[in-house]
Amino acid sequence: MEFREAKFEDRDFILNANREINVLSGLKDSTFENRIDNDLFKSKICKSIIAEIDGCIVGLLLYSYVYWANCGKGIYLSQAYVKKNIEVKVSTDKCLKNLKLRNLNATLLLTWLEQKIL
Q: For 39-47, what is the mean pLDDT?
C-alpha cells in the first residue's frame, strides 16, 4: 500500500467517499461538495492522504490541524474511508500510522475506537 497527498484529480473519489460516509452516518446535508476546491486544494485548511494499491485508490484520510491545550499541535481526523473490498482493520491501521509518520511533531487526537486500531 502506497500513500500520497491528495491531488485535484482525486476530487471525485474524495467526494464519493464523503457521500458514502454521510449516508452511513445518517447525515443528509453536507457543504463539503461546495467547499472542497477551496478548503482542500486552494486554502488548504484541511488535508487528505490517499491510499493506493497497484495505482488504484483504495482509501483516504481527511484531516486538519488543531491546537490542544494538553499536547500542543494536534491532528483532527475528520474522515477515514477504505473501500469495501479492502481489509478495513489492516488498511485503516496503515493509513493512521502513515498520517502519524508524516506529522511527528503533532499529536494524533483519536477516539477510543481509533486508539484500539493502533
A: 95
